[in-house]
């Protein structure tokens, strides 16, 4: 059973930066996606950034150039560096693992870490 634990969420002002972390434990296959997803009240969970074990990364258009996803294999961790934050970046950020990058392709989910950006 794969377990994921996110951390790093906080309340900051617009323009500031945050770094989210996700630590994975349990069995994980050799080829998979790890991703960050964001959910706000009343809306569906949207993809923010994905990292594949082959090193490929994908980003939502709204975060390109501001967010960077990275992975530390030795620590079995995934990170999301978020810069130039805006109030629209606020939400509950989830880390997930699965065979495909979209939310429907993710099999395991963390419980989320809350990001609140004030203007």
* Structural class based on helices, strands and sheet pairing: mainly beta
Distance between the termini: 40 Å
Query: Which of globular, elongated, flat, extended, rod-shaped describes the shape?
Result: globular
Q: From N to C, what is the helix and strand string?
A: EEEEEEEEEEE
The total of beta strands comes to: 11
Q: C-alpha Rg, in Å?
A: 13 Å
What is the tally of helical segments? Answer: 0
Largest β sheet strand count, sense and barrel closure: 7 strands, mixed
Mean pLDDT: 94
Write the layout of secondary structure elements.
Blueprint: E1 3-7, E2 11-13, E3 18-25, E4 33-39, E5 46-52, E6 57-59, E7 67-72, E8 77-82, E9 91-98, E10 106-109, E11 113-118
Parallel strand pairs: 2-11
Antiparallel strand pairs: 1-3, 3-8, 4-5, 4-9, 5-6, 7-8, 9-10, 9-11
